[in-house]
Amino acid sequence: MTDRVKHLVAANASQILDIRRHLHANPELSFKEFETSKFVCSKLDEWGIPYTNGYVKTGIVAHIEGKNPNSKVVAIRGDMDALPILEANDVPYKSKNDGVMHACGHDVHTSCALGAAKVLHELRDDFEGTLKVVFQPGEERLPGGASLMIKEGALDNPKPSSMVGQHVLPDLAVGKVGFKSGMYMASADEVYFTVMGKGGHAALPHKLIDPVLITSHIIVALQQIVSRRTKPGVPCVLSFGRVEANGATNVIPNEVHVQGTFRTMDEEWRFEAHRIMKKLAEELAVSMGGTCDFRVDVGYPFVYNDEKLTEFARKAAIEYLGEDNVEELEMRMTGEDFSYYTHHMPGCFYRLGVSNEAEGLTSGLHTPTFNVDERCLEIGTGVMSYIALKQLQSQ
Q: Would the pTM of this model clear 0.85, i.e. be above it?
């Protein structure tokens, strides 16, 4: 069966490559994937694969039925949205939409999911059950397209027993994939606060309430929540990436705006930390004569890779690629809305190697120069197809 899947993937490789290049050249932002959705539907129509579209406006769920379609149902996922980044790559398929780029590899994910749909459609007489292929919008933007697809019933009628997804990883060489059982990726919450004081001439600080100074104390104090309040052994990160104090060398502003992210892998601690951060920031500001408006926008929960499913997928990948090409991943503090699926059913979220150091394809995700060694398309399509097929053939 591995040879049959590899043969079908190779036979469709040029189509999958063309699909990826089309998607890369025509990226669309989260929840605005209208042309992308039409393109995916056109391919499914061309191949005679039935689907339901219109979930969260642009989401699609394809249905590939084997023998006894209700006997078992499994799902795979490809996300479709791009990022607000101006592409710096000089390639024939460079983004045509200025300021929008597939800098996170979702063009690869969608192409591989489409490729897997075509392969399994051609193998539908060789398995029992149904494969649902979920083409999802809005992974990059809260509240996450996965949560909305679930709310709108994309996983119902019939409900899958498991969900498998993959994501490109530039730290992994092309030809390889990686797995991690259990806790894999962190919850991801957005932190916003504004410190209000009394601005004025910087040479007269005794007449002012300096919100810049108050903000600096708050940022330092909040880090102590991570180092002194988090249980040892619980991964936890608090980082601030934007601080706006619109003053000058001799002007102290009236207020300072701060944005950051809070990540952890313990749901109870997650929400307790929100409460502690808010209390500390607001009370510290008051103690220094100012005020603080503090809020946390709750983001994606942690990604939990079901041990049994992940081990099954890992063994399937070893059968398909060989043991030398399947690696063990480390826990990551990045976030991913695939987590919603893993909180509804057994899930497995693995990584697809895309880098090629010799060709200079080493840029990180979310950068203007991110690109992949396109040989990853056959690997990603094949591994995803084979994992799904093995699930549908198992008892």
A: yes
